[in-house]
Automatic annotation (TrEMBL):
Domain of life: Bacteria
Signal sequence coordinates: none
Family, per entry: Belongs to the UPF0339 family. Duplicated subfamily.
Stated name of the protein: DUF1508 domain-containing protein
Pfam families: DUF1508
InterPro entries given in the database record: DUF1508 (IPR010879), UPF0339_domain (IPR051141), YegP-like_sf (IPR036913)
C-alpha cells in the first residue's frame, strides 16, 4: 500500500500532510487560504518529491535534523518532522520520494 495526502481545513484555512501507509506524517504543508491552493501544493509535491535536488537538509537550533521539500522555483512546499539523527532524516526523505508521487488524496474538509 502506498502513502496518501490528507487535506484538512482548520479555522478557514487549508493544509495537507503527506502520510506513509502506516499513517505517519512524512511532510506537512504551509497553510493555504483556499482549497485550490492546497491542491496546487499537493500537485507540486507530487511533481517535485522524486528529485533529490529539491530537498534542503537542515538542522534546527537544538541540533535536530529535518528537511524542506522545495519546488523548482525554490519555494518551500512542505517541512518534515524533527529527526533524531541524520540517517533518520535520510530515511524520511526516501519515504517522501517513494510516497510523494501518489495520486491518493483524502479530502477531510
Amino acid at each position: 500500500m502506498a502513502g496518501y495526502y490528507e487535506l484538512t481545513r482548520r479555522g478557514g484555512h487549508y493544509h495537507f500532510n503527506l502520510k506513509a501507509d502506516n499513517n505517519q506524517v512524512i511532510l506537512s504543508s504551509e497553510t493555504y487560504e483556499s482549497r485550490a491552493g492546497a491542491l496546487n501544493g499537493i500537485g507540486s509535491c507530487q511533481e517535485n518529491s522524486p528529485h533529490d535536488d529539491r530537498y534542503d537538509r537542515l538542522t534546527a537550533r537544538d541540533g535536530s535534523p529535518y528537511f524542506n521539500l522545495k519546488a523548482r522555483n525554490g519555494q518551500v512546499i512542505g517541512t518534515s518532522e524533527m529527526y533524531s539523527s541524520t540517517q533518520a532524516r535520510e530515511n524520511g526523505i526516501a519515504s517522501c520520494k517513494t510516497n510523494g508521487p501518489t495520486k491518493d488524496i483524502r479530502d477531510k474538509t
